[in-house]
Amino acid sequence: MATRYFTAGTFDFLRDLAANNSRAWFNDNKARYEASIKEPALDFIEDFATPLEKISRHFVADPSLQGGSLFRIHRDTRFSKDKTPYKTNTGLHFRHFMAKDAHAPGFYLHLEPGECFMGVGLWRPETSVAYAIRRHIDEHPADWKKATRSKRFTDVYSLQGDSLTRPPKGFDEEHPLIEDLKRKDFIASARLSQKTVTSADFATVFEENCKRGVPLMKFLCDAVGVPF
């Protein structure tokens, strides 16, 4: 039976938090946070473990509160001029099991009023990992194009992220895939409507979109030397 995880209350809370981003307000509304965001998100993570294992047994759906798939609502303000204490979005990240030991791709869900999307890929890898991906693109151009240009992929996803202003060291500016080689982020995202996120079919939509991203995820896993 289909399950409705997120509701209008999820987004109402995030809007109210954006307008009242303080510890006092959050403490007064902590029960709303737990009921509309934390509990449904943890239920979604736990229920997605079985479909995720069928996609790949090397990715993890972890409902643990510490280090699990649900990002903390608290912002890290140590090095930021913005000292507001809470994030005004909810993030879920289904990491590769080697992600703590190596830069590895993941599946991501972002919920925010007016800005819902899911993503696949590897965001801002360190320099050596980025070069490993670029070399893999250079050595396997047909596989890269198949992973990122197929209709099944582009019907849902578009490549996103930042790029270098100049060709990376060792690659000619006339390379036919130079714009891909200049990428600093090897990610793709698919926009989601609030109506979709709050529907009883959302888990099915999310699973299907994860499957559409598999060719890119396989390519990136091969590039960085982790199993898919």
Keywords, separated by commas or semicolons:
alpha+beta; 228 residues; 5 strands; BirA Bifunctional Protein, domain 2; 44% helix
Q: What would a concise description of this structure say?
A:
With 228 residues, the protein is of the alpha+beta class. It has 10 helices and 5 strands; from the N terminus they run αααβββαααβαβααα.
Structure in words:
Strand 2 and strand 3 (116-122) form a beta hairpin. This protein is globular. It has a 5-stranded antiparallel beta sheet. It has helices at 8-19, 23-28, 30-55, 127-139, 141-149, 151-154, 178-181, 194-197, 202-212, 214-224; strands spanning 90-95, 106-111, 116-122, 158-160, 186-192. Helix content is 44%, strand content 13%. It is α+β, with helices and mostly antiparallel strands and 228 residues long. It has one domain (8-224): BirA Bifunctional Protein, domain 2.
Largest beta sheet, briefly?
Answer: 5 strands, antiparallel
The percentage helix is 40-55%
Poorly predicted regions:
none
Strand content: 5-15%
Please tally the β strands and state the result. Answer: 5
- Strand order across the biggest sheet? 1-2-3-5-4
What is the helix tally?
10
Straight-line N-to-C gap: 30 Å
How does the helix and strand content classify structurally? alpha+beta
The CATH architecture can be named as: 2-Layer Sandwich
Query: Which word captures the global form?
Result: globular
